[in-house]
What we know:
This protein is of the alpha+beta class. 34% of the residues lie in helices and 25% in strands. It has three helices and six strands. A hairpin with a 5-residue loop joins strand 2 and strand 3 (35-43). It is elongated.
Amino acid sequence: xxxxxNMFGNSYQVFDDDENLVSVATSLEFWDDDPLAxxxxxxxxxxxxxxxxxxxxxxLGSGIEYCNKSWMQTVADIAARExxxxxxxxxxxxxxxxxxxxxxxxxxxxxxxxVLKWEAAEVSRIATPRVGLTANS
Length: 137
């Protein structure tokens, strides 16, 4: 795989002359229609697919309470089902040999779809008034 960008057709942006880092547009969207982009980085013979903290920051901005850190474990567990890790910097990432990038990409997209679905459900849950509560409660 000499050209990392060729894997993604016309839906990418190259960040360096050697094409070791590209951003890729995806068809996934957050609950508020913001698009999900991801990054693919070549590190030797391996590929790293990651979101540069985009999903983590979107969840923080969605109104889901950060003080309840259990959501961090929940989304980490959701992503881990596909082999995607949530690292200490808030990046969801998967690493694979370049020869296995198609499988890693599919697993990454599946994990992100599941995390975005969880976020949308949480936003809907916190936005729904609870029965018996009024504005004065």
